[in-house]
Amino acid sequence: MSIIKEILKKIPQDAMISSHSYEGANIVLYTKNPKFFLHGGDIIRKLVEEFKKRIELRADQAVLKDVEETKKKIEEVMPKDAEVTQIILQPARSLAIIESKKPGVAIGKEGENLRVIKEKTHWTPLVRRESVIPSQITTNIRNVLYENSDERRKFLNKIGERIYETKRSTTEEKWARISFLGGARQVGRSCLLLQTPESKILIDCGINVASDKHAYPYLTAPEFNIADLDAVIISHAHLDHSGFLPYLFKYGYTGPVYCTEPTRDVMSLLQLDYIQVSHSAATKPIYSSTDIKNAVKNTITLEYGEVTDITPDVRITLYNGGHILGSSLVHIHIGEGWHNLLYTGDFKFKDTQLLNKSSSMFPRVETLIMESTYGSHDNVLEERGVSEKMLTDIVKKTLKRKGKVLVPVLGVGRAQEVMVVLEKFFSENKIKVPIYIDGMVWDVSAIHNAYPRFLNKEIREKIFYEDKDPFLSKIFKQVGSRKERDLVLEGGPCVVLATSGMLTGGPSVEYLKNFAEDKKNSLVFVSYQGEGSLGNKIQKGDKDIVFEGAKGMETTPLNMEVHTIPGFSGHADRNELINYIHKIKPRPKKIIIVHGESSSCLDLASSLHKTFKVETVAPRNLDSIRLR
Ligand SMILES: [Zn+2]
C-alpha cells in the first residue's frame, strides 16, 4: 500500500482531507475543515513521528479566503517595520509568500503574526527574506519560481510519485557504482554519475572554465542516458560544478535539481554571465536563458542537515562546505544504509571571514570522495592573517605611488572575503580611495545579504544591523556600464575587484589591458588560476600578454607588479586535507581523490594511504568504481 494511503487511514473522518500531493519527498494534505486546519497540528505531529516523513497540512482551495481580501488582511497584520516588499498568493498550493526585509519582525513573537494570518485567511503563510541590496536578477529568479504554482505543484508531485510509488528494480541485489564523467585528475568540469539498482543520479555538472579544449563532461559515456536520469545534485554554484546544468535541460532533462537556496540563485547568475561572456567572445553560447530558467523551475532547495529521499533507494543530506555561500558536502545514504558516500565538492576546513569551516561529523561514511585542488605536498598555504596583511600592504604601497590595484575575482567567494578585509582596512585607516566592483560581484553580494543564515555568526549579526553590513559600505562603488568603466580607467588611484577570476574574459580583462603597461599598478591573484587560463600564464611569468582585440590579436607588455596570495583560497590546503581525515567521524574505509591536477591527486592519495592505512584511489575521467 502506498505511504499516503497508510497515512490517510490514521486521520479521523471529520478532518475532511480532500486531496493530497507530494512536494518532492514531503507529503501535503489538504483539508476542507478549517477547524482541523487550525487545530489539527497534534495529529499531524504524531504522524510525522510515526512515518518519519515531513507531512504538512494546508487548507483546500475551497475554504481559502478571496485573494484580494487575503492580501489586505496580510498587509493589516504585518508591522510597518517588517518592510514587506511583495505578497504572492499561490492558490494551487494554498501558499501565501511574504517577502520582507525584516523576516523576524514579519513572523512576530513565536510566530504570532503567521498564526493570525492562518486563522483569518486559511492560507499558509511563508516568510522569505528580501535582500537589502537591490538586485534585478535575484528578483527575476524568485519570480520564475512564483510564476506558475499549478505547474510547480504537478512537478513536485511527480517527484514524490517517483520516490514513493514507482520502484523500477525487482532485484534485491545491493550494489552501487560511481563513474567519473569529469573533474577526475583535473580542476574543472566536475561531474559524477552514481548508479544503484534503483537510481541514476548526477552529482555536479560543471564546465572547464579555464580552457576551451575538453570543456564539458563526458555525457557521451555509455552508462549515461539523459532519459534515465532521476536527479541532479549541485554541491555549489561555481561554474566548474554547475555550468553545464542548463545544457541538460536543453536536451530534455525534466527531473529535479537539489541544492541549497543560495546555490540556486548564485549559479543562475553565473550561468547567465557565462552566456554573456560567450556572446562578447563571439562564440555561440551552448545554452540560452530559457534553459537556465527551466533549471531554476526544477530546483528543490534543501537546508543544511535536512534529510531527504530523492529516489526509492537514495537519501541525501547537505552539510556546510565552508567554501562559498551555500556550498555543501553531499552525504548520500544508499538503500537501508548499506552504503554511505560523502562527496566534499570544494570545501575548506578552516573558518574564514564569511563562513564556518566545513562539517566533519556524520552518521555513517564508508566512502569519501574528496577534492585535492591544493593536495600536493608543496601546497601549504599562508595563514589567513598573513595573507590579509600581504593584501593590505600591496594596496597601501600601490596607492602610495599613485597606482591602481586590480584583483581578478570569481564573482562569488573570494570577492566577498576580499571586500570584508578591505572594508575593515579602509575604514580603520580612514582611506578615502574608492573600491570599484565590476561584473557579477554586486549581485552576489545581494544574495549574501538575502541568506545570512548561511554565513558565520559575526557577519550574520553585522547584516542584521544595516549600518554595520560591510557589503553596504559606501567605500564600494558599483561599475554598471561601459561608460562608468571608462571613467575608472581614466581616473586616479583605486582598487578594482572584477570578474572573471582567471582573466578568461569579462571586465577583469578590460582592466588588465589598460593597467598592464604602467609599473605603478599591481595585479593581485587571490584565487586558483586554472591550467591554460591567462591568469595561469601570467603567474608562470609571461611578460607579454596577448588579447583578442578589435583588430585581431594584440600584444601588451606586462609591466605592472604581479602578486599571488594563495592564503585567501576557499579550498582546504594540503594540511587541512590531511587534518580533515584525522578529524572526520566516522573515518571512511575508502578515499577517492578528485578535483586536483594529476600530480596533486596522486600525491595526496599516496600520502593518505601511508598515513591512515586506508584504501585510496585517484581515478581518471571515464573510470568507474564499484562502491559495494
Ligand atoms: Zn568552487
Give a quick rundown of the structure:
By secondary structure, the protein is of the alpha/beta class.
Q: Secondary-structure map with pairings?
A:
Blueprint: H1 3-9, E1 17-23, E2 26-31, H2 34-39, H3 41-51, E3 55-59, H4 67-77, E4 84-90, E5 95-100, H5 103-107, H6 112-121, E6 124-129, H7 136-147, H8 149-165, E7 177-182, E8 191-195, E9 200-203, E10 231-233, H9 239-242, H10 245-250, E11 257-259, H11 261-280, H12 289-297, E12 299-301, E13 308-311, E14 314-320, E15 328-334, E16 339-343, E17 367-371, H13 384-400, E18 404-408, H14 414-428, E19 435-438, H15 441-450, H16 457-464, E20 476-479, H17 482-490, E21 494-498, H18 507-515, E22 522-525, H19 534-539, E23 544-549, E24 552-557, E25 561-564, H20 574-583, E26 590-594, H21 598-612, E27 615-617, E28 624-626
Helix pairs in contact: 4-6, 11-12, 11-15
The protein binds zinc ion (ZN).
Notable traits:
GMP Synthetase, Chain A, domain 3; seven-stranded mixed sheet; Metallo-beta-lactamase, Chain A; 35% helix; 628 residues; globular; alpha/beta; binds zinc ion
Tell me what the structure shows.
The protein has 628 residues and is an alpha/beta fold. It has four domains: 3-60, 2-Layer Sandwich (GMP Synthetase, Chain A, domain 3); 63-142, K homology (KH) domain (GMP Synthetase, Chain A, domain 3), CATH 3.30.300; 167-378 and 571-626, Metallo-beta-lactamase, Chain A, CATH 3.60.15; 384-568, Rossmann fold (3-Layer(aba) Sandwich), CATH 3.40.50. 35% of the residues lie in helices and 22% in strands. It has 21 helices and 28 strands. Strands 12-11-10-9-8-7-28 form a seven-stranded mixed β-sheet. Strands 13-14-15-16-17-26-27 form a seven-stranded mixed β-sheet. It has a six-stranded parallel β-sheet with strand order 20-19-21-18-22-25, with helices on both faces. Helix 4 (67-77) runs antiparallel to helix 6 (112-121), helix 11 (261-280) packs antiparallel against helix 12 and helix 11 runs antiparallel to helix 15. The two termini are 30 Å apart. The mean pLDDT is 93. Bound molecules: zinc ion (ZN). Zinc ion binds next to loops.
